[in-house]
Amino acid sequence: MLNEDLIIETINMIRLYNLDIRTVTLALSLRDCIDSDIDVLCDNIYNKIKKYAANLVEFANEFENDYSIPIVNKRIAVTPISLIGEACKNPDYVKIAKTLDKAAKDVGVNFIGGFSALVEKGCTKGDKLLIDSIPEALAQTERVCSSINVASSKAGINMDAILRMSEIIKKSAELTKDNDGIGAAKLVVFCNSPGDNPFMAGAFCGIGEPECALNVGVSGPGVVRAAIESLDKSADLSTLANKIKQIAYKITTTGELVGRKLAQKLDIPFGVIDLSLAPTPAVGDSVAGIFQAMGLEHAGAHGTTAALAMLNDAVKKGGIMASSHVGGLSGAFIPVSEDAGMIEAASKKYLTFDKLEAMTSVCSVGLDMIAIPGDTPTDTIAGIIADEMAIGMINKKTTAVRIIPVLGKNIGEEVFYGGLLGKAPIMSVNNLSSSGFVKRGGRIPAPIHSLNN
After folding, report:
1. Domains of the chain, first to last
2. Which of 32, 252, 366, 424 reaches 20 to 30 Å from 356, CA-CA?
3. What share of the chain in percent tops pLDDT 90?
């Protein structure tokens, strides 16, 4: 039986509190595209993407109109390209990136992820070639996103890869300096990267994934905040957590409906629903705003990490009851540039770099979309990445770094990207040197709990 109150509540979540399907992402294996000839490989990649994604945007738009549920992004995630290109006699990863970009443009998606490599234990020749090509590839494409997994709870931390990635991040920013280093905004370094993540820039189609699948990411920070504000201010934290669980269940149910119906229409399997709360720069669609509704003066106040831990846990407990196939990242995003409340907190120096790092121990993404001075040494960037990888490795969780060294701008100035990428103040980082530590190279061994077979 349809309940009038539930229908009205769902309508209000969409119209008043920014509930939307943040992304529907077609995960697509490219393993059967491999060829020793780079031209044949690129043709295979383009033709396969065109075949499987030809109707993705059209059908998603039709579904959006039929059900009045906004679907903000339509995306594609492919097999890590380092694996696809290394069989070529003369591999040209920039050419492959341009092929991905053209295919993404021609089918109408806004991003394509998977210009990636998995190097937590070491690099193959193909991995090294792909990593070296990242700055040029991101500078010469519009829709391609790149991710490199440099650590895991099973393998430890590949410091050699971290050192190289710190240089790649700087070079990616330099080659796109006329657009505030946006190349680095399309590049993320992971620990424990999941193969079914629908969100960019880290999405790729994992080795254990099927030929293709539709993964869905739902967003509703505004809905969660409104639910909390509907409670009496004297409500205790257990009551607060239960309310978040209830609303997370409803949000996830909406995503489950969209994912399964759209996958059925596309005649492909439904993959997973990602429970992550993904904010936007829009007013009222902020994870930081949830902290204020909980009773904190602003994000960054003492208690913020505890509030984020409770939010993350409650969202997962509520969401997992609404779907049998939960995956991806599934937590709360805290990207500085993409969250209006986080932007304000960082601009007013309520939120420091160190506080953000502490918060990443209990959220799903890590140090995300943080702008730093362009003259930050690569050794310092390597130290930042290493710290974040350690948090993920020890806690057996996914975490990442998407950091943007902005050339020509100093602490307190802002960068503007527009759209979902938003804007961000340049934040200060610790000036103490990390050089002697990070330049030792090698691997930080996996923790003892990796031996759990």
Report:
1. 24-191 (3.20.70.20), 217-446 (3.20.70.20)
2. 252
3. 63
